[in-house]
Amino acid sequence: VSALVSPEGTAPRKGIGPRRLVALAALALAIGIGFVAAQSLAGTAVYYLTPTEAKERGLGPGQTARLGGQVEAGSLRYEPASRDLRFVIGDGVSRVEVVGTGAPPGLLREGAGAVVEGSFGADGVFRATQVIAKHDEVYQAPPPGATPSHRKP
Amino acid sequence: MSWGELGAGALRAALLFAVLGAGASAFAARYRDVRGLLSARWCALLALGLVALADLAMIGALVTHDFRIAYVASNNALETPVFYSVISLWAALEGSILLWTLVLAAATAFVAWRGTVSMPRLATAALGILFVMLTFFLLLVTTPAADPFTPSAFVPENGRGPNALLQNNPLMALHPPLLYLGYVLFSVPFAYAMASLILGEGGDRWLVATRRYALVSWALLGTGIVAGAWWSYAVLGWGGYWAWDPVENAAIMPWLTATAYLHSVMVEEKRRLLRTWNLALVIGTFALTILGTFLTRSGIVNSVHAFSLSAIGPLLLGYLVAILVASCGLLLWRSRELADRGALGAPLSREAVFLFQNVLFVAATLTVLLGTLYPLIAEALSGTQLSIGAPYFDRVEVPIALALLFLMGVGPQLPWHGASRATLERQFALPASAGAAGAVLAVVAGTRGVAPVLTYALGAFVAGTVAQEMARGIRARGVLHGERGGQAFVALFRRNGRRYGGYVVHLGVVLIAVAIAASQSGTVEVEQTLAPGGSMAVAGRVVTLDAIRDVEEPQRLRVVADVRVSGPAGDTRLEPSFAFYPNATQPVGTPGISAGAGEDVYVILAAYDQRGRAWATMRARVIPLVSWLWVGGAVIGLGSVLAALPPPRRRPARSAQLAETVAAGAE
Question: Within an 8 Å CB–CB cutoff, is residue A152 touching chain B?
Fold first, then answer.
């Protein structure tokens, strides 16, 4: 510790002087952070797959992944009392049944894009821990004479 | 003349003056020519006037709903309220670049008329560089890349209206302009630094001349980021304020490097060290501001903020590469003249702490950059798509942030060159006790987790150092000038605003750190489906759903849940809602927030019965201390203002310096 408390003017002692100590400590710090970052990157990356890719890769039960696709028409079921959320997402080739707990995000719509994060259960049903609806900012003009959707009874 | 013709004409004329100004200032700097400088000044002023005219023309077009302009047709509607029409200037790509150009033109004019007075040659060369940047942005807005005045292909009867998310909250008026001001103002230190390298000045005049620009830019960027977090919290309805979204990351990276720079500048001023390092930080910060613009506007990252794809991406990337190549080339070319004389002091000296602090800030920047770009790199290399989310950033950035919080308390307490054991005891006895007390209190109060307890302890430690410094400063002024408490307190900021303003900023950072720790570790969430009249309990409160009703407004339809929150302090009524805009295919949720100094109650309408309005799923969160975050942002802004204010004209006062020395406790 006494090496750390050298007041101004103290001649550097033999071996590692205080100045070099600062540089070495800074370097060690940088390397340490780089190491932690690389480790964390590998440990937290979540793969983003289409339902087809998930099936092709044989994503096992418990392996976390993100699936992206379209919410299939007529598949969205939300049970208010238990807050069970069920729907099917597909990519035109494969379809995956998804269950989750909690209200669907406001933007989740049948036919619109969605991303679910979670893992497959042993029964092949995807247990979603997170459901993210994709923003669809592309505006499509309603056909002539159509009632805007929010005015429908 | 229509708004469109007026704006487009003004921009083209401004482009002419920017090019002329670049030539005139280069000539003036090269041949020390006064007439050249005078021409450059008038070019700057005219360019500013013309760009301002173009911005006003766009606002005029938005307010009068002139759908002959494509930008107005896609971002405005007849029903849009005037306020949201005006702020639609920065609601989409072309308009935001137009605003950016205005700020850059203003900075250029300011340097032309004020900067060149005190340092004619250096500032004139910097002015030339600013003119080149201005030319680039004017080229963007006068070509199809980002021409805001492009006429509509056909003129619709009504426009599409602004993006639903952007017309939901007035904070949108604050967040983007603050960020743009911060981003653009950093062009000035960069331009001076490059000018200094080109002229081969060697010294640190560029740094002294632009200290205030850097500080103001940093403060605007910081408060802009906090305003953005607040917007996200109040509008997006997910109960959080920071998602490590690529564009959030793009905004915080230059702020991190600028923070490093503001501190390492002091090492160069006091010890004449770290010259090359400071130049690298300025270049890095400026490049990161452009990277942020590029990421936001190129559409290459998936983000809430991403504007639509446009030709502007490659242009901005080219600009970024050109800046990096030119500035790094200059740095290498002049590297021999930049060598430091002298070396860093003992490990327990202020300059050593600044070095560690700089390493940590740059490491934080690089790790954020890595996490942000890694999905792009992985996709380019192996074709796999993956996402890097909050777990990565939390694991890497939280320890760095805690270490920085620690250094924030240590640095100002250590003298330059090195500290003796006696100094250490005198400087750290009180703050260290405060830190220990903070830790004990946090544990007794039931805080779980290492990171939150450490945050509270370090927060108390830093607050202790600031309190000690203020008390000593006041006492020293009392002894030396006979000033009493309040008077001495004000005098500290008037005489040495940079230092004491800096301490206020540190307090703001502590508030933010505590707010983040408390809200991340102590939030309680309950989600239930309720029928009208039903209620649920959350963290000692009862949330009752009174009714679900539809509200028709001119520009939207809203489904509102009338919610009553009953707590120890009485009842509060909240109205979480869904809003349907005719131009959006999807509804926009708005949370109901009851904000308090101790905790916020945050209620979201998560789902509702679309037929009979017979039930609604409500999500209620009780979030402790989250409002301290916004207060902390304001405190940082206040501290920066105090630090940036010019001190009153100095009397030849040795005593002021003496007071400073006494307060610092330096030998």
Answer: no
